[in-house]
From TrEMBL, chain A:
Transmembrane segments: none
Entry's Gene Ontology cellular component terms: ATP-binding cassette (ABC) transporter complex; periplasmic space
Protein name, entry field: ABC transporter substrate-binding protein
Principal subcellular localisation of the protein: other
Subcellular location: Cell envelope
Domain Solute-binding protein family: residue ranges: 80-441
Keyword line: Signal, Transport
GO-annotated molecular function: peptide transmembrane transporter activity
Keyword Signal set for record: yes
GO biological process, one term: peptide transport
Similarity field: Belongs to the bacterial solute-binding protein 5 family.
Source superkingdom: Archaea
UniProtKB/TrEMBL annotation, chain B:
Membrane topology summary: Multi-pass membrane protein
Organism of derivation: candidate division WOR-3 bacterium
CDD domains: TM_PBP2
Gene Ontology cellular component list: plasma membrane
Domain of life: Bacteria
Any Pfam family the entry gives: BPD_transp_1_N
SUPFAM superfamilies: MetI-like (SSF161098)
Transmembrane segments: 9-27, 109-130, 142-166, 181-200, 235-261, 281-304
GO MF entries: nickel cation transmembrane transporter activity
Protein name in the entry: ABC transporter permease
UniProt keywords, alphabetically: Cell membrane, Ion transport, Membrane, Nickel, Nickel transport, Transmembrane, Transmembrane helix, Transport
């Protein structure tokens, strides 16, 4: 047994060693990389990164990692532009010819040809049933090395727009594929190549594609790390562990700005809307009631105060900066007096003086359901609860997992949810699902024959201006009849250090999209 | 003893498969149609997306979800017995390829956290008991109560704030060297240590009052010797039991810690898979966790036997 003195001596020595190694680590970190500017970008990604198969992780592989590209791309106002396809023309109601860009190569040097496109798209359609429903592709025919003929099941005006979908990123058949057809290492045409994917940590290591057809990117490397917890993302970017991230908790936005980080809030094509249990039954069957609820909501207050500026008040479903938006819609600006008038007209009165309206002996007391997966929804629901109370409607807020809501919600209840208006940059996607009497989202029985025929017509009208007229009218009816109430557009906070330059936000992205003009200017300094 | 171990292993096999059957059927009770959720999470990436009936049917066919439950389970069981745990609905990759690279990250975290908590808790517990009602006793009891009450994620965020943000000594998230291990280990270990420390303290206090300790003192034995050679071994008996149970809970606690620290373990894999209804991966994770827990409890019981020779196993 060691003597007592020896033990104390060893104890002190161990502590000294630990202490000095910690000091050394600290010093090393501070003085390291005082060398030349490295064009490396480290990104903190919000979703878990499980796979790099573009069919399953389209958003990651196309929009963020920029490894693959699609035949058609979209401008920030949602008009279409050529991507890997230089141009396209419609042959007849169900057939389209696409002319591919020449001289493009995949990351491994193989030539980009129509055969590769056919293989890539067919592979995606076989693996993902929703893609088939989205594109309505019946067959793909290779006409020559750079020309393809697509045939759709039905006449489908939104077909070119559907090709923008990130799961349709074109990969080379020479990509590494496992025995079940899942793509393990995608070889695309984009400005960045996949160097390595660390499955366990969910980290992507990307390296520049020097031969990119549209010009060499300035960044040499990109590392995309998955950090699913919003608070952790905020801390990571603050510390400089990542240079760029998005979707941090609202409470952090002011603080990060004060520290000198660039925080940009960008409106997206994702809209928060209120939907009703059933439009054929009281209380929502009366359009005056629906309008009253719309008037009762103070969208400015919700956007600026409840959500700290992370939302923008919405009039209609489409943001005014997008080409398809009808900019002449009459809005339901905050007017609680008008709301009360309408409710009274509809027969709701406060008979017993308790502040809650009644009609035929029943109280106007409903439940507002929402879900936790989108952080803005709960505060928004509570704000709406307070605003509706002011006009005499009693609301109870219940938060539960999205898939559970359907089981619990009754005809008398409301739901607050967010919807992406543009999984593809075409109005048909959202409007048909939401407003057609047989639409997939339309669970509340909205049925208007003029709306139905407009939507069916819009599907088959191929002239862009004529289509705009159709969808303008669709939006007008939606605002007149209020089958759903639009509250606000989701604004995504994008946070980056000030040495990250050249970032351009594109609302076509599902979350955010990196662009090849990004570069690093100056040293990556950390302030503290 | 050997016969006992073999018997326990046989029981463990039943436990593991029983757990997997129970999990499978519980999963089927969760709200929402599995095929719909997989479309939303894995194929489209938009949780509000409502797929049409055609898409749902096609997905069910693609993934074999159309069969009645008991057939799906039996299919899984037969494949599992051959070592084939199926493929993830989310990534399409074999389940073992998802679990194995992440398993050692979780085991690393769990073992180091357990070791840390024991190294802190037991000495502190003994000292508190021996110097009952002294300053150090009150201080450690206060700290222990604090960590028992405070939730994991709060401790994690406070540690990150102090050591990562303000002092800039350690990284906030990630996996790599020792510097990444420290904060997650303290987070996980602190809660465990608090409980173990209090238990150690009360157990030692109890043993100190026993007659044989009084005899030893009367004999003139050095106090330190008494504690280390006589008291400790007996006081550890209830502690070992609880520590064994705690290790099982530790695996559950890793879910939160792994999410906050972006630690690449199976806790995080499990929660992501539950959200996505990725049944093959959930089944696989539960299976491995059941194996680990069964082994840990078996080892605990064996150690128990060595600590207390009065216990005889058949």
């Amino acid at each position: 047994m060691l003597s007592r003195k020896r033990k104390i001596g060893i104890g002190i020595a161990v502590c000294l060693v630990l202490l000095s190694s910690m000091i050394l680590m600290y010093v090393e970190r501070k003085t390291a990389s005082a060398s030349e500017i490295k064009q490396n970008l480290v990104v903190g990604e919000m979703w878990p990164i499980r796979t790099v198969d573009p069919v399953r992780s389209g958003t990651l592989v196309k929009e963020k990692a920029m490894i693959v590209e699609t035949l058609v791309e979209a401008n920030p106002d949602f008009t279409l532009k050529p991507g890997l396809a230089e141009s396209w023309e419609q042959i007849n109601d169900t057939q389209w010819k696409f002319y591919l860009r020449k001289g493009v190569k995949f990351h491994d040097g193989t030539e980009f040809t129509a055969d590769a496109v056919k293989w890539s798209i067919e592979n995606a359609l076989n693996k993902s049933p929703p893609l088939k429903a989205l594109t309505l592709i019946k067959s793909i025919e290779v006409l020559d090395k750079h020309t393809l003929l697509f045939t759709t099941e039905n006449p489908y005006a939104a077909f070119p727009a559907s090709l923008v979908h990130s799961s349709l990123g074109i990969v080379s058949p020479t990509s590494e594929i496992d025995d079940k057809g899942n793509i393990i290492k995608p070889i695309g045409t984009g400005p960045f190549k996949l160097e390595r994917f660390d499955i366990a940590t969910g980290t992507l290591y990307l390296i520049r594609n020097d031969d990119y057809w549209s010009g060499k990117p300035r960044l040499e490397r990109i590392i995309i790390k998955a950090i699913p917890d919003p608070a952790s993302r905020a801390i990571s970017v603050e510390k400089g562990e990542v240079d760029f991230t998005c979707d941090v908790p609202y409470g952090e936005i002011e603080r990060l700005k004060r520290l000198g980080l660039k925080v940009e809030l960008h409106a997206t094509a994702r809209v928060y809307q209120l939907t009703f249990g059933n439009l054929s039954d009281t209380p929502y069957s009366d359009v005056r009631v629906r309008k009253a609820i719309s008037y009762a909501i103070d969208r400015e207050a919700i956007s600026e105060r409840t959500l700290h500026g992370s939302a923008e008040p919405a009039v209609g479903p489409i943001m005014p900066t997008l080409w398809w938006a009808n900019r002449n819609l009459t809005e339901y600006s905050y007017n609680p007096e008008r709301a009360k008038e309408l409710l009274a007209e509809a027969g709701w009165r406060d008979v017993d003086g308790d502040g809650i309206l009644e009609k035929d002996g029943e109280e106007f007391s409903v439940t507002l359901y929402t879900y936790p997966e989108r952080p803005a929804l709960q505060p928004m629901a509570e704000a709406i609860q307070a605003m509706l109370k002011d006009v005499g409607i009693k609301v109870e807020v219940r938060v539960m997992e999205y898939s559970a809501i359907e089981k619990h919600m009754t005809d008398r209840d409301m739901k607050l949810a967010s919807y992406s208006v543009a999984m593809v940059p075409d109005p048909d996607y959202y409007f048909r699902k939401m407003f057609h009497s047989k639409g997939d989202y339309n669970k509340w029985g909205y049925s208007n024959s003029e709306m139905d025929s407009l939507l069916e017509h819009g599907l088959m009208t191929f002239d862009a201006d004529k289509r705009k007229e159709v969808y303008d009218r669709v939006q007008e009816i939606a605002l007149d009849e209020v089958p759903v109430i639009y509250v606000a557009y989701y604004k995504v906070p994008v946070v980056m250090h000030d040495y990250v330059k050249g970032f351009v936000f594109n609302p076509v992205a599902h979350d955010y999209m990196l662009n090849l003009e990004i570069y690093i200017e100056g040293q990556k300094t950390r302030w503290r | 003893m050997l016969r006992y171990i073999v018997k326990r292993l046989a029981i463990a096999v039943f436990v593991i498969f029983g757990t997997s059957a129970l999990t499978f059927f519980l999963l089927s009770l969760t709200p929402g149609d599995t095929a719909v959720i997989i479309i939303k999470r894995a194929f489209v990436g938009d949780i509000e997306y409502n797929p049409s009936i055609v898409e749902v049917k096609a997905t069910k066919d693609l993934l074999g979800l159309g069969n009645p439950l008991y057939i799906q389970y039996l299919q899984w069981l037969i494949n599992a017995l051959h070592g084939d745990f199926g493929r993830s609905y989310v990534t399409g990759r074999p389940v073992l390829d998802e679990i194995l690279p992440r398993l050692n990250a979780t085991i690393e975290l769990a073992i180091v956290a357990a070791a840390f908590s024991l190294l802190v808790a037991i000495p502190l517990g003994v000292v508190s008991a021996v110097r009952q009602n002294s300053g150090i006793d009150y201080l450690s009891m206060a700290i222990a109560t604090f960590f028992v009450a405070m939730p994991n994620f709060w401790v994690a965020l406070i540690l990150i704030l102090i050591f990562s943000l303000y002092l800039d000594l350690l990284p906030a998230t990630g996996y790599g060297g020792i510097e990444h291990l420290i904060l997650p280990v303290i987070t996980l270990g602190a809660g465990m240590a608090a409980i173990t420390m209090r238990l150690t303290r009360s157990s030692v206090l109890e043993v100190l009052r026993l007659d044989y300790v009084r005899t030893a003192r009367a004999k003139g034995l050095d106090e330190r010797r008494i504690i280390l050679r006589h008291v400790l071994k007996n006081a550890m008996i209830p502690v070992i039991t609880v520590v064994g149970l705690q290790l099982a809970h530790l695996l559950a606690g890793t879910v939160i810690v792994e999410t906050i620290f972006a630690w690449p373990g199976i806790g995080k894999l499990l929660i992501d898979s539950v959200n996505a209804r990725d049944i093959p991966v959930i089944q696989g994770c539960v299976f491995f966790i059941a194996i680990i827990v069964s082994l840990v409890t078996l080892i605990t019981d064996v150690i128990y036997r060595f600590l207390d020779p009065r216990i005889k196993y058949e």
